[in-house]
Amino acid sequence: MKYLQFINELLSKYITLIILALSAVAFMLPDYFAWGVQYTAIFLGVAMFGMGLNIRPQDFAVVLARPKDILLGTLAQYTIMPFAAWAICSLFRLPPDIAVGVILVGCCPGGTASNVIAYIAKGDVALSVGMTTVSTLLAPFVTPLLIYGLMGTWIEVDISAMMISVTKIVLLPVLLGIAVQYLFRHQVERIRPVSPLISMIAIVMIIAAIIAVNRDKLISSGLLTLAVVCLHNLVGLGLGLVVGKWLGLNYAKTTSLAIEVGMQNSGLAVALAAINFAANPLATLPGAVFSVWHNMSGAVFAGIRRYYMVEAPENITSHYKQAAAD
Question: Using CA atoms, how far apart are residues 179 and 173, in angstroms rounded to an integer?
Fold first, then answer.
């Protein structure tokens, strides 16, 4: 167990570098990873099951104790990124395949990596976990509706099929993980320190498989996709900060809100693209690129926020005063 825990900590610490390295290997040796694309939904389901194993009763207690904060964060999550994606696609007149992928990323719930980044940035981790949990549980209903509303005039969207897809690969595995944790809490508690390892391996495999299958398309459309994905992510982080400050939230809450908005469950976007938009082969690329990019940008953002907090002592004082008031 100690050996697995060491591997888990190592992966968590260097997850961005691992994703980059494996993506590079998959790009150069696609035959070794291309097989994984047919198991994208399974890998994501495994990742969501791992998330369910780590959702504790106190996480729901946070939701009940701080409904206003969670509601504001979830509302920001499901408005800023979807409409930013639509605006970017419209402004740059992106090719339909790439536009579909970008909007899919924008309409997805927050990613579990946001909780780790919030911790690094000294944000409100409980709020981050609460927002991720609620947005994930709402995803089977909200994500397909947003996709239909934003893409329905561009491309045919089967909203019922998409709801079924999100339920199968997100909601059911999460609920199963929660159920297993409840029924076998003592056994789960022993493996909890290494349970994130399951989710990390699954997400890394999804990214590597998509990179391998789309190597040729990356060569022709990679720079455009990267530029759009970077812009989308940075807009999310920036507007998340603006909204947090506009609402008068303290440092920790504002930081977590910005991170939650900017970091998406891009693995879900990849799975939805592969399952529901198979006729649009480039639609999986934005999600795969976003998975790599948002880990890097999130780490940099966390470093900047920590530096800002240290360099401005008054922020620390106001943060703790407001936290005490809350």
Answer: 10
d(C-alpha 146, C-alpha 152), whole Å: 9
Amino acid letter at 188? V
Residues 6+ apart with CB under 8 A from 225: 98, 101, 218, 282, 285, 286, 289
pTM: 0.82
How far is residue 98's CA from residue 172's CA, in Å, rounded to a whole number?
29
pLDDT in tens, the chain (326 residues): 566 566 666 666 666 777 788 888 888 988 888 888 788 888 888 888 888 887 777 777 777 788 888 999 999 999 999 999 999 999 988 888 889 999 999 999 988 778 878 877 888 888 888 898 899 999 999 999 999 999 877 788 888 988 998 898 888 988 898 888 888 888 777 776 666 677 778 878 888 888 888 787 777 777 888 899 999 999 999 999 999 999 888 888 999 999 999 999 888 888 888 888 877 778 888 988 888 888 788 888 888 887 776 554 444 444 434 444 44
Residue 95 backbone class (left: φ over 0; alpha: ψ -120 to 50; beta: rest): beta
Q: Which amino acid is at 4?
A: L
